[in-house]
């Protein structure tokens, strides 16, 4: 069964979700896991693609972006209905829950203090809880 983690950020800036997603993807890469980052649109995918290049000047996170030729990188960004062969970690930045979420070992929902994001992720939390998924919250506002 997919393990669900909610990461609650202190910031209200939606861009902080992208930075945190990069950090999670980097940790997963270091642990030998592959990561699929689900976003809402091609524009959001392009913004995350850019953030993965710039996120840490001293490191590179190999990744593919939907709509580009796939290189089979351990990190992929997508906005469609197909997550390819990824199954380790899903980072969901979408307004909805992807239909394919249950094929992943772990799912991370990144929450910032933006009202729209709070509303969406609260709905996601209720969906997972109602279906009996194990959920863990990481409140980063307290650190």
Automatic annotation (TrEMBL):
Pfam annotation, one family: DNA_pol3_chi
Natural source organism: Pseudomaricurvus hydrocarbonicus
GO MF terms held by the record: DNA binding; DNA-directed DNA polymerase activity
GO terms under biological process: DNA replication; positive regulation of DNA-templated DNA replication initiation
InterPro entries: DNA_pol3_chi (IPR007459), PolIII_chi_sf (IPR036768)
Protein name in the entry: DNA polymerase III subunit chi
